[in-house]
Write a structure and sequence with these properties.
The chain has 31 helices and 37 strands. It has 897 residues and is an alpha/beta fold. Among the domains are: 241 residues, Alpha/Beta hydrolase fold, catalytic domain (Rossmann fold, 3-Layer(aba) Sandwich); 95 residues, Roll (Luciferase, domain 3), CATH 2.30.38.10; 113 residues, GMP Synthetase, Chain A, domain 3, CATH 3.30.300.30. The chain is globular and about 95 Å long.
């Protein structure tokens, strides 16, 4: 090896321009013999000078290998204070600023060339490889050939295998097509520019120019052409054997592995991620929703890497021991355990009890003839066992993920509990997420099976959802073929029933308590919906917590005005009915539909989404005598999903005079955290935020204090009056987030606690007050405020129906903007474009906020409807408000919210 300093060869190398975000001192060229024995000039980024300048002794080396058509510039973000590792990011030969050799290089040649380079650098372990695109294949090959130095792997949007019978992704089919490949890759820079254009939002011009710089001119783009030509799709391709060797070899590498993925990649889609996970099942995974092929540009992958390296290999002062790396310790393990029982056990118990066997378990409001249809506990239990046996007979196995896309009712209930009975993992993402949100959830959960109604099967076919497909009802042959359906639940239930009638028992032991039971998707109110993974133990504890809070039993059923809660009743031994409503719009539940559902059960508990409260009150005038009597018979009323103002609960007194009005506080990650009734709310009085009561049994709540800029500190307290992020410990806290390693890590950064993302405080009586989301706190020059403080003050103005607080500017000097719904201007439906409020209203709101909080409001707008989450129709999307306000106050064009 000879370092390139002076002489004839150096003059042949192009001058490297200044690159944004890259310290020129880290740019290095050196000469190393390649696989042919010829000296070749490599260019790379090496962070040794940067580390030395800061006195940092590197923990090891990150060997970063780019793909096509990028170069080492892709990994510039890895050089940062919280990554005390040496970073060596190479430009592969014929790429970036490395030498153009004129030699055709195959996959194995590139692996060998990289090994020769690291030998010349005297690179020794611990090494963590970092690969993207083709660099993932090459770095994996290096890892296999240098496993004595390997400590871990990081793979991003890559693929190490392509089945012979599988079609290449359409983008690669086009790029590799004869007559088009060379024209797009080397004759022009179309392939490169198309790759750069995939990012959203668009890459800054200086970044695009940096990627284009080493590829100016046809002769400098020949490496791009070669890479495309070397895709080993066919069995006789020269690189096919190497691909097979590496793909198989990965199954033998048991080192800490991180996979960071941009799901919108049109080339390396989630099917390549699924393949990787079959080969490296122990890998930590984080999917950055919204990110595309250049995930390093679209998301903070380097921040994720920093956290992962620290979690897997320790801090700088700790000995580096990859073998000591451990899996998550779930929050539930630190909590008081709940009574253990199998999920769904009450169904079988009530079916065997003569007192309840023939009483209703599920009531469907439209039984086909306009009349309610009742399904008894005995029939439900039989149906669950029949379907369970049929699923096993068809090949569904414990641990398989089953996306259940069925309208709430008897079919959904039976399929869900059949899956839980045999140990299949139920994926629950309801239609309330909207088409786009539901599609992201299904694809992101990587289901093995989809069990769905025709509408969802059509979406699965059109949108390319993965998983073998099963319909609910038997479909005509043409429909089965069109949807790619293998069988139906009706058919499986018949075959399962026949097997059991012939004396074959349901050969399935109850799942282990620590096995995954279900993946429940969040509402998506604070970003893309997340999959909360529950084990059987955690799910059983969750059912117990909800049952204890709502006091449900076989004599006291549940009217589920919020679709996901329809699944809870049977597990709690409570008959359940869903009102006649659009489950995707829970806020449009009418008083009449609710009254009909209550009448079907007698004196039930009623659960609705918070947004439904207003509509129930608004439509109460349409009730007839029987409807009013039905509502008056409700024994209790519950609403959760967002804090409930006391005046709404008071408004229900005329409609439900005998019902106890309870508002539990919880979330998908931990249903039932705290609870309070109307009397408790009135006893708590006025305060900062919404009082949600005291913790339910076996739940502990604490506060992670915040600094002046709204960032949580390491101080955990239960002292009254301290505002900060709400921490939760309970036996029913979810196990983890699905394929969101970084999000799981952040939510568990306080050992033994789940960081909820809500902000609030405890009072002297131990009651919890919720003041908004931690991400939405207002770090103003006047001090730290929570959004609910501002919103409650604005809503005290008589003509204001609802208020949303937004902020503009940097933390510490943020300015407050308030956007209102008014009583006269409110129109249900999609959010509209805000307009400046009338002067008198602006002044009234400013004065109310100033008097209550001491803060100044810089602008007040009105809109026909504030943006809310899709599922609850109640949580205000404050992030959308802030984006709109920032654009507007900067003089930029801002459309509807």
């Amino acid at each position: 090896m000879t370092e390139r300093q002076t002489g004839r060869r150096r003059a042949q190398a192009p001058e490297i321009p200044a690159l944004p975000g890259v310290d020129a001192r880290l740019s290095r060229t050196l000469e190393v013999r390649d696989h042919t024995g010829t000296p070749r000039r490599w260019h790379l980024l090496d962070s040794v000078p940067w580390l030395a300048e800061r006195g940092i002794a590197p923990r090891g080396t990150l060997l970063a290998v780019h793909g096509n058509p990028t170069y080492s510039f892709l990994f510039r973000s890895l050089i940062r204070e919280d990554i005390p590792w040496r970073v060596i990011a190479v430009d592969q030969l014929d790429m970036g600023w490395s030498e153009r050799t004129g030699v055709t290089r195959r996959y194995q040649d590139r692996i060998t060339d990289l090994s020769l380079l690291t030998d010349a650098l005297s690179l020794r372990g611990p090494v963590v490889t970092v690969g993207h695109d083709w660099g993932g294949l090459i770095s994996s090959g290096w890892a296999l050939d240098n496993r004595h130095d390997l400590a871990g792997m990081i793979l991003t949007n890559t693929g190490v295998h392509q089945e012979i019978e599988e079609a290449l992704p359409k983008a690669l089919q086009l790029a590799s097509a004869p007559g088009f490949r060379t024209a797009s890759t080397s004759l022009t820079d179309a392939f490169l520019r198309t790759t750069l254009a995939l990012s959203s939002p668009p890459l800054p011009k200086e970044v695009q120019d940096a990627y284009l710089a080493p590829y100016r001119g046809r002769s400098r783009r020949l490496g791009i052409d070669q890479f495309v030509a070397d895709i080993p799709a066919a069995a006789d391709h020269p690189s096919r054997a190497t691909l097979e060797r590496v793909a198989q070899g990965l199954t033998e590498l048991h080192v800490p592995t991180l996979m960071a993925w941009g799901p919108r990649d049109i080339t390396f889609s989630d099917r390549f991620l699924r393949d990787l996970l079959t080969r490296v099942p122990h890998a930590d995974v984080h999917r950055f929703e919204g990110a595309s092929h250049l995930v390093w540009e679209d998301a903070d992958v380097a921040g994720l890497v920093a956290d992962w390296l620290r979690a897997r290999f320790g801090d700088a002062e700790e000995p580096l021991d990859p073998a000591a790396s451990t899996a998550w310790t779930p929050v539930s393990a630190a909590a008081e355990p709940a009574p253990g029982r199998h999920v769904g056990e009450p169904i079988a118990r009530l079916a065997a009890d003569p007192r309840h066997a023939h009483s209703p378990a599920v009531v469907e409001m439209d039984g086909g003839d306009g009349e309610p249809r009742e399904i008894s506990w005995s029939l439900l239990n039989r149906r669950v066992d029949d379907i369970a046996a049929g699923l096993l007979g068809h090949g569904v196995r414990p641990g398989d993920r089953v996306s259940v896309l069925i309208t709430p009712g008897a079919d959904l209930t039976a399929v869900l509990y059949a899956c839980l009975r045999i140990g299949a993992v139920a994926v629950i993402a309801d239609a309330g997420l909207g088409v786009a949100g539901l599609s992201r959830a299904v694809i992101g959960s990587h289901p093995d099976w989809i069990i769905a109604i025709p509408k969802a099967l059509a979406a699965a076919r059109a949108l390319g959802w993965p998983g073998r497909r099963i319909s609910v009802e038997q479909l005509p042959t043409l429909d089965r073929t069109a949807f790619g359906v293998e069988t139906s639940i009706a058919q499986l239930a018949r075959s399962g029933s026949l097997m059991r009638d012939l004396g074959a028992p349901l050969e399935a032991s109850w799942p282990d308590p620590e096995d995954d039971a279900a993946i429940l998707f969040t509402s998506g109110s604070t970003g893309p919906a997340k999959g909360a993974v529950y084990t059987h133990r955690q799910m059983s504890a969750m059912f117990t917590a909800v049952g204890d809070t709502l006091q449900l039993d076989p004599e006291r059923g549940l009217v589920a005005g919020f679709a996901p809660f329809a699944l809870l009743g049977p597990a709690l031994g409570a008959p359940t009915v869903v009102p006649d409503m659009d489950i995707t719009r829970p806020g449009e539940l009418t008083a009449s539909a609710l009254a009909d559902a209550i009448a079907a059960l007698g004196e039930p508990a009623v659960f609705t989404a918070p947004a439904a409260l207003r509509n129930i009150l608004d439509t109460a005038k349409d009730l007839d005598e029987h409807g009013r009597a039905a509502l008056a018979s409700a024994a209790s009323f519950f609403s959760a999903g967002a804090p409930i103002p006391a005046h709404l609960l008071r408004g229900l007194r005329d409609l439900m005079p005998h019902a106890r009005a309870l508002t539990p506080y919880g979330m998908t990650e931990c249903l039932a955290v705290a609870a309070i009734d109307l009397e408790g709310i009135e006893a708590a009085g006025e305060g900062s935020g919404v009082c949600v009561g005291t913790p339910v049994p076996r739940v502990q709540v604490a506060i992670a204090a915040m600094d002046a800029e709204g960032r949580t500190t390491g101080e955990i307290t239960t002292a009254p009056g301290v505002t900060g992020e709400v921490l939760i410990r309970a036996p029913h806290v979810r196990d983890r987030y699905l394929m969101l390693w970084g999000t799981t890590h952040a939510s568990m950064r306080f050992a033994g606690w789940h960081a909820s993302g809500d902000v609030g405080h405890l009072d002297e009586a131990g009651r919890l007050w919720i003041e908004g989301r931690a991400a939405h706190v207002l770090a103003t020059a006047a001090g730290l405020l929570t959004p609910v403080q501002v919103e409650e003050a604005a809503e005290s103005v008589p003509t204001v129906r609802r208020a949303g607080a937004a902020v503009v500017g940097p933390r510490g000097t943020q300015q407050i903007v308030v956007i209102l719904e008014t009583e006269d201007g409110y129109r249900p439906g999609k959010a509209g474009k805000p307009r400046a409020a009338e002067t008198s209203l602006q002044e009234a709101v400013r004065r109310a906020v100033r008097d209550r909080t001491g803060a100044e409001v810089v602008a007040v707008f009105t809109t026909r409807a504030l943006p809310t989450d899709i599922r609850h129709n109640s949580k205000i999307d404050r992030a959308a408000l802030s984006r709109w306000a920032g654009q507007t106050l900067r003089g930029e064009r801002a459309d509807s919210l």
